[in-house]
Specification:
By secondary structure, the protein is an alpha+beta fold. It has helices at about 5-15, 20-30, 35-45, 80-90, 115-125, and strands spanning about 65-75, 95-100, 105-110, 130-140. The chain is about 35% helix and about 20% strand. The chain has a four-stranded antiparallel β-sheet. The longest helix is centred in the N-terminal third of the chain and has 13 residues, at about 35-45.
Length: about 150
């Protein structure tokens, strides 16, 4: 799907305020409500807009620690990769898992209440992941910048 500038404006506004009414959105992007609604429907149907979510404040939920874990597997055989990916997707504290090029095979973004809570996650889940040869954990000291908005 080819995006024009109006589509991009709609996407930028919706990334910032996804619960905005169609009337408010159409006013913000300077488009009639019916035309705006049609464009949003088209963006949804094409999969460009994948979903609408509520972004929660991790600190207010008591999840003040962010840990990045680099994982190296003992082999990159397809069945090992698949088993690892299936198992790691079931760990509730893992927010992201990326297959990497470079020294580590995967990098995980994990939230925890504290270092003690991360030790529990490590013991209960990470050490039991299939195919893991090595792990290296790095604790974020402070989040300098964070966004979910894509540059459109």
């Amino acid at each position: 799907m080819k995006l024009d500038e109006m589509d991009r404006r709609i996407l930028r506004v919706l990334q910032r305020a996804g619960r905005m009414s169609n009337a408010d959105l159409s006013e913000e992007v300077n488009l009639s409500p019916s035309a705006c609604h049609r464009r949003v429907q088209r963006l949804e149907e094409s999969g460009m807009i994948r979903d609408y979510v509520a972004l929660l404040d991790a600190r207010k939920l008591g999840l003040s620690s962010t840990v990045f874990v680099e994982i190296t597997l003992n082999t990159q055989a397809d069945e090992v990769l698949e088993a690892f990916e299936k198992a790691v997707s079931r760990v509730p504290e893992v927010l992201e898992c990326h297959l990497m090029a470079g020294t580590a095979d995967y990098i995980l973004k994990i939230v925890a209440e504290s270092t003690e809570d991360f030790a529990r996650i490590h013991r209960q889940y990470l050490t039991r992941l299939p195919g893991v040869a090595q792990m290296q954990s790095s604790f974020a000291l402070r989040t300098v910048f964070k966004t979910t908005a894509l540059p459109v």
